[in-house]
Design a protein that fits this description.
Elements: E1 3-4, E2 11-15, H1 19-25, H2 30-51, E3 55-62, H3 70-93, E4 97-101, H4 109-122, E5 129-136, H5 138-154, H6 165-169, E6 182-185, E7 204-207, H7 217-229, E8 231-232
Parallel strand pairs: 2-3, 2-6, 3-5, 4-5, 6-7
Antiparallel strand pairs: 1-8
Length: 241
């Protein structure tokens, strides 16, 4: 029932913002900030798993991030490879299922192979589902779903009359998971930046000034507590809750 939510969110999504500013404040390169951010990812994944959250989706690299300086993009790709090398076995040991969402075709062959191997290793795990959004954009997600459906209609696998929201949603990333309950954005910005545009339609939004490398388990739990204090009416009025 809509209304006061007294449980934990099933699906949490995080826009991990502030790595570059954190590094700049310390006179260090942005790459150092991204490495510091990776350490926080480990902490939050562990906290989410221990809390019994079903799915955690992290915005690691948007489709617009290719426009950043080449040195930063290269550092991010190197960090991605490093993380896959170092973290996947640990995730597997903790029964966490790893999935990469986004258009991975733009990544080099080495990285694509590592992604497939990581997903294959953890695909039968039954604990937290950890989604890493890499070369992902909400507009891209909706567009690729539309193209799939058009192809199905052209092949007479689907009629236009059959097309509804439920059918459309099945073609989106994360279609097998509950819609996002809570979106957290660190770094002080108050926008969603083309992240899970469809999936967060009724999510609670939580913005915090803390830069991502300074975010920790305590701040994560505070966001959960704020979520639990809110009313979720999904279009109804308060009296219907």
């Amino acid at each position: 029932m809509p209304g006061l939510n007294i449980g934990i969110p099933k699906h949490v999504a995080i826009i991990m913002d502030g790595n570059g500013r954190w590094a700049n404040q310390r006179g260090q390169s942005r790459a150092i900030g991204h490495r510091a951010g990776l350490k926080v990812v480990r902490k939050i994944v562990r906290a989410a798993s221990e809390k019994g959250i079903l799915a955690l989706t992290l915005y690691a690299f948007s489709s617009e991030n290719w426009n950043r300086p080449e040195t930063e993009v290269s550092a991010l790709m190197a960090l991605f490879i490093y993380a896959l090398n170092r973290e996947v076995k640990r995730l597997h040991q903790n029964n966490i299922k790893l999935r990469i969402i986004g258009d991975i075709s733009r990544f080099n062959q080495q990285l694509q192979k590592m992604i497939y191997q990581a997903q294959s290793l953890t695909e039968n795990n039954t604990g937290l589902v950890l989604n890493i959004a890499a070369n992902y954009g909400g507009h891209w997600d909706i567009l690729q779903a539309t193209k799939k459906l058009i192809a199905q209609i052209e092949d007479n696998q689907l009629s236009l009359a059959q097309l509804d929201e439920a059918v459309f949603q099945k073609q989106l990333c994360l279609a097998d998971l509950p819609d996002v309950d809570l979106v957290i954005r660190t770094g002080g910005e108050c926008r969603i930046s083309n992240f899970l545009v469809w999936q967060i339609a009724y999510a609670e939004l939580y913005f915090i000034e803390t830069l991502w490398p300074d975010f920790d388990e305590s701040a994560f739990m505070q966001a959960i507590e704020v979520f639990q204090s809110r009313e979720r009416r999904f279009g109804n009025i308060k009296e219907q809750s």
